[in-house]
Amino acid sequence: MTEGRVNENIRYWTLALIAFHFLLYIMDIPVWVAVASFSALLYRVLVERQILKLPGLRIKLPLVILSVVGVVIEYRTILGQEPATSLLILAVSLKVLESVRYRDVLISLLLCYYLLVGKLLLVQSFVMTLLLLIDVMLVSFVILQLHQFKNSDRSLMDMIKPISIMVLKALPFLLFLFFFFPRFSTGFFKLQVPPPPGSGFSSKLDPGDLSSLALSDRVAFRVKFLEGNPPPMGSLYWRGGILWKNSEMVWEREDQKRYPNTGLKNLLEAEPLVTEVSLEPQYGQFLFALDRPYRVRFSDPKKSSRLHYRRGNSFQFPVNLSQRVLFNVESHFATRDYPLSKEERELFLQVPGPPSPRIQELLDRWKKQSTLPLQRSQSITRFFKTQGFRYTLQPGKMTQKTVDEFLFTKKVGFCEHYAAAHASLLRWMGIPARVVIGFQGGQFNALDNYYVVSDKDAHAWTEFWDEKQQTWIRQDPTAGVAPLRLAVGGRAFFQVSEDQRNRLTSADDFLNLQNSGLIGYLSQAKLYFDAAAHRWNLFLLKYDFNYQKKLLASIGIGNMNRWILFLFSVFLAGLFYFLWKKRFYRDLWGRTKVEKIYASTCQFLARQNSTRMGYEGPQSYKKRLLMAFPGAKNEIQTFFDTYTEIRFAKSTAKIDLLQGAAVKLRKQIRRHGKLSAS
Amino acid sequence: MKSLIKDLPLARKKIYIIPTRFGIVFIAGLFTMLLTAAAYANNLVYLLTFLLTAILLIAMAETHNNIRAVSIHRVEVEPAEEDDYVNLKVWIKNHGDQPKFSVFVGLQGKAFKKYKGMTQLISQKSLSSVCFKFPANKPGVYTLPKLKIFTIFPLGLFYAWRFQHQEQSYFVYPKPRGQQRLPDKSMGLGEDQGLQNRGGDDFRGHEKYIPGENQRHIDWKAYARGRPLLLKKFDFGDPRVFELGLEKIQALKMEDRLRQLSQWVWECHKNQDIYSLDLAGSNCDAGNGGHHLRNCLKLLAEHDVWKAS
């Protein structure tokens, strides 16, 4: 079986498995790679059907060169996870076009495992875990087939069973290795990925950016409150970063000054709220935390030290995130800030130019009404509330992107419009202000006490500097134009169409709508599934070097030299194996009682030098035995006929008789012995 | 022609096990996977690596057990023709309670690596036969190299083998080759007697057809009538008697002379004639049949000239 061509069945199975692994990547590879790989598979199928012939070296060699060139053009390099994955897929595609021998099947399947590894680096979830298990079983199944029957009349189920048993036997080792194999502390952020396209959050906020982000329903992060009571939904703000360069409706930030993450704990006036956040990797370097975060910590202090702190209570990752991460945040909304420096004041008062006359009129009016910045800010909010403004996910384009256009012509916007206008107006009134981007709201999952924040909750709001209190104060203009959006969260708010929304007056109305009917059931089911998957993801995230150290310490391996621990792991693994072997191996193929009786009788007869041949059925064997042991004729007859009836006529009534017949047979044969040496 | 049969004792020997080439590549692959998992601190990749490691260990145990209770029960070797193959039929016995799969039988030694036979299944407590062949070299009497039972079932990751001790000898007889006619008893050297091909006329009866026999003599009419496949056997009439000996042949080399004798012996056997063989030093009395054929061929194989080169 190690020479010559491989069985046709196995060739098809291998192709199917390869196709399965390609499908894993269908969303992550460039279109031309997907097309090329599936074309190769299709070509191969046609070759199997003998419609086409395998390509020779003259075609394959240029294909190899084309592939490498293609990858280099696409990614500018061949180093890195994405180009490597594409190259791997193309390599496997080329392999598919070669004549298949024993070792080709094995190599292809091994490469499939590597493709799986690549996918696991990108996505970790409960579903991926199941996929992993199924994948290993399928690959092992094909390899088993390869080493077994050529023209098999064993059914599929017959072969699934030994594989399942093998995997079950492997489970104790797996668990042991998983928990006790020494993990190493890594430097974090190894996987360099390019900036995610359209993540929605960047260093520039244009009108329409967040509304397009809020069209998707992707989960952004999940939060659990560890210490302190969660604030009401209306106060659940998740801070991502601040913008301060004012171009009326467009806001940006410029300098790249980053500070080390040493924490601002000394600014806290009260006990902070501690939250545990598991953030999905689609926002590049942005980190979101409950407003206002003072300290962000990973379980690994090395990772924590690599975080950056940026101006305005925002934290940032050193590189674009590639995997989901888990961290703890200490936040408090009652704050104290360092006094504004002269340079900062200039920064936060910068305006592109004077306001339009219409706006100047408004500003003068407001300035006359009050001198306090808070009240001035509230005037703006009231303006939004009373002057017929609309809050919508589809605000449409702005031609000039000026505040004037927004306030008097357009009057329709999403949170970024209102926040940008609000902050500009404040600055024109001489109040230092800035725009904050992040999320607001979230959906509470009562099953596991955590909040799920999604893209629908994407939000922008403003902060202004209060001279008297020497602190930044949050003021959300959306509270004026769409207070219910803040009260119920983005997901619930935008689930309902705009017309319906205008009819709803309280938060409860929204909740009732959400939980009613089919949508209600679906969302309940989704909650259950999310809770379970989230638990599993947390486990995967949490079990790292530090956790393991604690776990081992709790069972007394705290101080052990890592090398000794490794030996210990190996030793225990061997011990487990031998114990397991003793206990379960005997019944691997699961024989029934009847088979056991028959087998032991054949064994007995073998000792009498009348071994049953592999091809002999019970009746043929019986015939031969009748000749060899004439003195035990009746007993032989009884035993074999009973056995045949049970086995083939399925007469279960006779099972009890079989044992008795076997015993009588042995007695008789021992008494009379064999006829003569055969 | 009866083959040389030896029933072997139930010798239980040590089982050796090493990773196959695929196994080594697999282990190397596992290492890189482990490094990847550690580099990215990715628990799912760790999970995959450890699962595959565990399966590797289990596979090692399974491969070991696949030949654990298996031994060679009996070896049948046929005398081989020079430049042809030595045909072996080996009966292996599974003493264990579980069926064994894809068990190979081969010979020890690098030269014999290619020559092996496989049985796909040996049920519990039963026998299975394996046929394979290896090339015969020059004529002579040889001892069969040590027999090896091996397997790579179930996952091709490990290669387990054990040896069976046996002292089985076989011989290779010279290739029947020569143009000279059979010597008639009454005549001198090589005179043409027109006795080369004796066709038979007298119908002797039917004999059951066994696959491998000459298909020319099948009685198709009988088959058409519903009877099983039968061979028509003809009498050759009275058997002739030949005295075969070295001195009856003219040839330069001893080897060619022995080959000519071998050809004569086969012809006589085919025609069911009686013949005797006389080599200077050893001889065989007149007779015919399978045993006689084997004895004569053995004599030819044992000749000293083969041992020289």
What can you see in these coordinates?
The complex is a heterodimer of chains A (678) and B (309). With 678 residues, chain A is of the alpha+beta class. Chain A folds into four domains: 8-150, no CATH class; 154-185 and 545-587, no CATH class; 204-521, no CATH class; 593-672, no CATH class. Chain A is 53% helix and 13% strand. In chain A, strands 9-12-7-2-17-16 form a six-stranded antiparallel sheet. A five-stranded antiparallel sheet of chain A has the order 8-3-15-18-19. In chain A, strand 18 (458-466) and strand 19 form a beta hairpin. The longest helix of chain A has 26 residues, at 517-542. Mean pLDDT of chain A is 82; it is low at 583-590. With 309 residues, chain B is α+β, with helices and mostly antiparallel strands. Chain B has two domains: 1-173, Immunoglobulins (Immunoglobulin-like); 236-308, no CATH class. Chain B is built from six helices and 17 strands. Chain B has helices spanning 21-40, 43-66, 220-224, 254-270, 290-302, 304-308, and strands at 4-7, 16-19, 70-77, 80-81, 85-94, 100-107, 116-122, 127-135, 140-143, 147-151, 158-164, 169-173, 202-208, 230-235, 241-245, 274-279, 282-287. In chain B, the strands form five sheets. A five-stranded antiparallel sheet of chain B has the order 2-11-10-6-7. In chain B, strands 1-3-5-8 form a four-stranded antiparallel sheet, with no helix packed on it. A three-stranded mixed sheet of chain B has the order 4-12-9. In chain B, helix 1 (21-40) runs antiparallel to helix 2. The longest helix of chain B has 24 residues, at 43-66. The model of chain B is unreliable at 186-197 (pLDDT under 50). At the A-B interface, helix 5, helix 6, helix 7, helix 20 and helix 22 of A face helix 1, helix 2, strand 7 and strand 8 of B.
